[in-house]
Amino acid sequence: MSDRLNVLKTYKLYVGGKFPRSESGRVYEVTDSKNRWLANAPLSSRKDARDAVVAARKAFGGWSGATAYNRGQILYRVAEMLEGRRDQYVREVAEAEGLSKSKAAEQVDAAIDRWVWYAGWTDKIAQVVGGGNPVAGPYFNLSSPEPTGVVAVLAPQESSFLGLVSVVAPVIATGNTAVVVASEESPLPALSLGEVLATSDLPGGVVNILSGRTAEIAAPLAAHQDVNAIDLAGADEALARELEIAAADNLKRVLRPQPVDDWSATPGTDRMTAFLETKTVWHPTGSLGASGSAY
Amino acid sequence: MTMEKRSSAFEYAPAPESRSIVDIAPSYGLFIDGEFTEAADGKVFKTVSPSTEEVLSEVAEAGEADVDRAVKAARRAFEKWSALPGAERAKYLFRIARIIQERSRELAVLETLDNGKPIRETRDADLPLVAAHFFYYAGWADKLGHAGFGADPRPLGVAGQVIPWNFPLLMLAWKIAPALATGNTVVLKPAETTPLSALFFADVCRQAGLPGGVVNIVTGDGRAGAALVAHPDVNKVAFTGSTAVGKEIARTVAGTRKKLTLELGGKGANIVFDDAPIDQAVEGIVNGIFFNQGQVCCAGSRLLVQESVQDELLDALKRRLSTLRLGDPLDKNTDIGAINSAEQLARITALADQGEAEGAERWSPACEIPSAGYWFAPTLFTNVTQAHTIARDEIFGPVLSVLTFRTPDEAVAKANNTPYGLSAGVWTEKGSRILAVANRLRAGVIWSNTFNKFDPTSPFGGYKESGFGREGGRHGLEAYLDV
Amino acid sequence: MPTTAPPAHALSDVTASDGTLRRFLHGLPGVDAVGLEARAASLGTRSIKTTAKAYAIDLAISMVDLTTLEGADTPGKVRALGAKAVRPDPTDRTAPATAAVCVYPDMVATAREAVAGSGVKVASVATAFPAGRAPIAVKLADVREAVSAGADEIDMVIDRGAFLAGNYLKVYEEIVAVKEACGTSARLKVIFETGELSTYDNIRRASWLGMLAGADFIKTSTGKVAVNATPANTLLMLEAVRDFRAQTGVQVGVKPAGGIRTSKDAIKFLVLVNETAGEDWLDNHWFRFGASSLLNDLLMQRQKLATGRYSGPDYVTVD
Predict the structure, then answer these.
(1) Where is the Aldehyde dehydrogenase domain (chain A) (predicted)?
(2) CB-based contact (8 Å) between C11 and chain A?
(3) More exposed terminus of chain C, fewer Cβ within 10 Å: N or C?
(4) B361 is catalytic
């Protein structure tokens, strides 16, 4: 063992493209599976949640208005950046989830591949779930998916990194912006993800990452009138019900928690479509002339 | 030669549709398990014709026990119905579509009597769309594996459906057709003020030979609806109605596994640019807010007109409103029928009065209001700003609030400045502007250079507090499938 | 420059040059074809019954420009037409006379004689009807001949070639010249041949062009092409005369011609008039039907209303 003392990282939140401490000025102790101290994580308050929503809303216009190709490029860039810091995440995931190095590496590799999967989806989902509708009249009629808006995401509690990526990437792939509440016990990989996102050309505010007590942060998010949707993946049954009731106040789209045995399984499109609206535009086609035939 | 001129040159003589085509029984029971049955506690309520206040019939009022009975019947029927080959389910729905076409005149008159809307609309809009909706979803029943929801998507089970009074039979079609096509069974609660067409639909099911329990109709008020939504053995809840009730339902189903779709209120903006096809825009505005007396969730209730054409447009609009014919809904020349209920009339009246009190300028064309029934003259408010109640609250009546804008950006900002997001209209001859504006509007249905067009193939539903889920089209299947 | 001063009204300066005229016409609001046709179809569902129907049928009869425009027209044919215009239903003297008979210029004198003293007008197509492809001098001579032979009304065709080529001022000046040739005694109907103009935007522009040039009537068609009067193009022209009067105070008539054959169709057109331009146009001074077979159907419907029995073609006169 070397005599040199490690330089420890101060873990911070990721909000609006910046790395602030919690507004509360408070932290909580994060330990590994054997209860050894790993770091102090920011204990986010409801004001942090509010700030994150403001940042996410501000970013929504630009991100949803970016071309799908551009969003795909950026998501792919996230994968590239993660690949470069693979070892760091393998260590963090191993510590957070008590996994062997090889098991943790599987998780990280799957998470990197997941970004690649969603990078490819950005400019295809509209073709898969949208399309023209053959209405019985002289109208052009097209349905297209559009992002719902600001999505609060309660990341899965157990799968601190692959689970996190699996719920965040589909939300932003389609143009939503996200306020993410990291796994309460294992927030460090999530907080580190912010560092990668910040260097991947992802505009600030598109993803905002908070650590702390899930129930405490989730309550103001579920009740927030400027949040359009909430993914309850990281909530237990009782909390999920409570949040779903709060979410009804402005009719948020709610994705209820579902048991996930294996986050590495190939995802379908459900996590994208859960946060998409369908917009249908009508326009008269009419005839080429007043003289009868349209052809 | 000279013609003798009348005071009003061309007065249309009354042209009433014959009422005798529909035979309304003095009383109706609940339709459960293929039989008409009284409510467990024997309660009944009256349904009246809004244009005359005449009592049309007495209808059973379902209580919790009745709702439970209906859900059990639907559950029993589910096993066989869902196991039926899709092609067989399809044929039942095709039968229903055909029978509705055959009986469309009767059903149109019935709907006009019970709802108060003009026969012109029930005949030319409601009924053709009802039949078309069943036709459309009939064809999906054996093609679900091709709909993009996996190779063999499964039905959810029992669907509890609660529908409003503004398009009683059409909303029934929007709910029942996709539910049955996907293999679900149904308990449907029609609105308290318009139960009759749903009960006639029960008879259509009988004629079609639909197995008992596949469709159950429970009439009653909000309590019956609440009991249905809360019933533990319901797997799917679909509601069309007010945003307030929609939120209540969302709370009720919270923490359950019930799948929920909501189609709620709106405050649609109809945006008219200075280069609009002005005569067609006027028609679109009229169609947008006076269709069905404005009792339409996707009504274009806010007119956003570019300031530079405001005067020209308003002159044309007022001139056009003066030709609207208000009166007997059964008269084929009636454009504006009765308001559906005294309660709704009171709400419209109160909001219009508030508009006046808040300083907006009120205008209505000269029109004679019948002495009996519930009526409200077509009404236009000018000098309205975003801050006025009538620019924010859904009035659900023939009341148009006129606001102005200067630039496309401002138009979009004002149009989106509402908790609702159901519909919007854009009028301009410039194609790129249509697409740019449509792109930025946060609403589920955008009508450009048209308004209030509906089609079974076209998904319908809202953003934000206008609800979630889509009805119509391939998208409409999702609400009833286990995906 | 126009050969004569245009009518003095608020829009007189738009015809100052080809450029101003083009800018004005292209600045008119566009027409959405689907919306226009939907509105026309919706008005077509009005149900006109009993007393309203009786009124409408008589009004329609009084608005007919009873027309024969065939190469085979003879004085005998024209005299028969004139007699029918004056007394459409020989069995029922209460049936109103038609508004006019409409013939080629060389038949004007014969027609004049046939309707003498009845109040029925004589209208004559002119300006090298129906194609209008003749030198301006020939067209004007055509008009002057008809007027001097006693025509009360001249139905001219515009130069569609010039219009479609964008030479709006040429079309305008020709109408102004024809109007001048009509003098004070003859009213001028300007035929656009809407089927050849093809688009509704063109029909709206032509309507304004015609009215600016002094048309007393704007008329859809010659009856000689595939698509003639339709509810939609007539609705559009009714909107134009309505708007023109609102802007200038000048009222202009409308004449759909060709393809209107049944009473049901005619009544639909009257509904269009009633609910678009308004009751001021519900008079044969301001609205006409260019038709021939329509009259017999109106008469049969009139007999049905009077007797309660359906009539048949043997109870009305062949033309």
Answers:
(1) 24-254
(2) no
(3) N
(4) no
Sequence length of chain A is 295
CATH of the domain at C80: 3.20.20.70
Q: Do C35 and A287 touch (CB under 8 A)?
A: no
Does residue C219 lie within any of the structural domains?
A: yes
Domains assigned to chain A: 27-284 (3.40.605.10)
User: Which range of residues forms the domain containing residue C91?
Assistant: 33-310
Catalytic residue among C139, C179, C189, C255: C255
Distance CA C21, CA C14 (A): 5
SS3 at position B320: helix
Question: What's B404's domain CATH number?
Answer: 3.40.309.10
Cis ω before C135 (30° cut-off from 0): no
Could you tell me where the beta strands, DSSP code E, fall in B294-378?
302-306, 361-363
Q: Would the pTM of this model clear 0.90, i.e. be above it?
A: yes
Average of per-residue pLDDT across B234-255: 98
Domain-located, residue C43: yes
Same domain, B211 and B343: no
Query: Do the Cβ atoms of A283 and B264 come within 8 Å?
Result: no
Contact B153/A at CB under 8 A: no
Residue range B290-311: mean pLDDT, rounded: 98
- Choosing from B17, B121, B297, B478, the catalytic residue is B297
Residues of B in contact with A228 (CB under 8 A): 464
Q: Inter-chain contact A135–B458, Cβ cutoff 8 Å?
A: yes
Annotated catalytic residue B283: no
Q: What is the Cα–Cα distance from B212 to B202, expressed in whole angstroms?
A: 10
Q: Which pLDDT tens digit goes with each residue over B310-340?
A: 999 999 999 999 999 999 999 999 999 999 9
Alpha-carbon distance of B171 to B358, in angstroms, equals 35
Structural domain includes residue B8: no
Q: A289: which chain C residues are within 8 Å (Cβ-Cβ)? A: 198-199
Contact of C96 with chain B, judged by CB distance below 8 Å, is answered with yes
**Three-state DSSP class for residue C149:** coil
Domain holding B348, by residue range, is 269-448
Closest C-alpha to B77, from B258, B210, B205: B210
Position B4 in a domain: no
